[in-house]
Specification:
This protein has 216 residues and is α/β, with parallel strands linked by helices. It has 6 helices and 10 strands; from the N terminus they run βαββαβαβαββαβββα. It has one domain: Alpha-Beta Barrel (TIM Barrel). The radius of gyration is 16 Å and the shape is globular. The structure holds the ligand O=C(O)c1ccccc1NCC(=O)[C@H](O)[C@H](O)COP(=O)(O)O. The site of ligand LARABZUK has 27 residues, from strand 2 and strand 6. It catalyses: N-(5-phospho-beta-D-ribosyl)anthranilate = 1-(2-carboxyphenylamino)-1-deoxy-D-ribulose 5-phosphate.
Amino acid sequence: MLIKVCGMRDLENIQNLQARVQPDYMGLIFYPPSPRYVGDKDPGVYHSIQLRKVGVFVDEELEKVLDRVKTYGLNGVQLHGKESKDYILELKKHTNVFVWKVWSVKEELNWESLRPYEELIDAFLFDTFTEAHGGSGKLFNWQLLANYPFDKPFFLSGGLSLTHAAEITQLKSKIPQLVGVDLNSKFEISPGLKDIEQLVAFKNSLLNTEINEGSI
Ligand SMILES: O=C(O)c1ccccc1NCC(=O)[C@H](O)[C@H](O)COP(=O)(O)O
């Protein structure tokens, strides 16, 4: 199971994340209203970090996204707004970073609305709907994913915490397209500052449940 830790910005915290947790991705949020907004930090401070960086954007101007990809050395972008198919096509004309399209889940999921994106993107990411666009700290109804109709890999997000490792592993055993999890506010000391011990514990717990699941 891939792990993305989102909403990072403090260099020392990121260095500890890299040394102790070694997640597959870390997320930098480029959405000014977010309490985890990267702000106008010198992009150079992140250049020593080896973790793959995912830029999180909400209906951002294409020029700005492309600028952040370049200056922050992003490996991928996560689109959290109402970005259209044309927007993604245009983005892909100018950069070859991976693209994850976020689907904000309310009470139901209309798979036909996702279908046009399938061929364009690298993964879907399912998050809980919130007017703030992300970081709700709330779970959505995972049962809605039971009839996920695509081959496209997806990430699970929204309010995931230390207690969810076993349930996530069970979900993956039923839906193999679930390739990763996105962790955020439930692992925070304060917005943008992650509790490294909790993340280590989650990773170990996930590994243990995966081993146990495999040995049944
Ligand atoms: O976290 C934010 O503040 C945020 C704000 C606006 C758009 C996206 C945002 N976060 C992106 C993420 O990928 C989060 O990990 C995801 O929303 C889940 O967060 P949480 O419910 O806190 O686990």
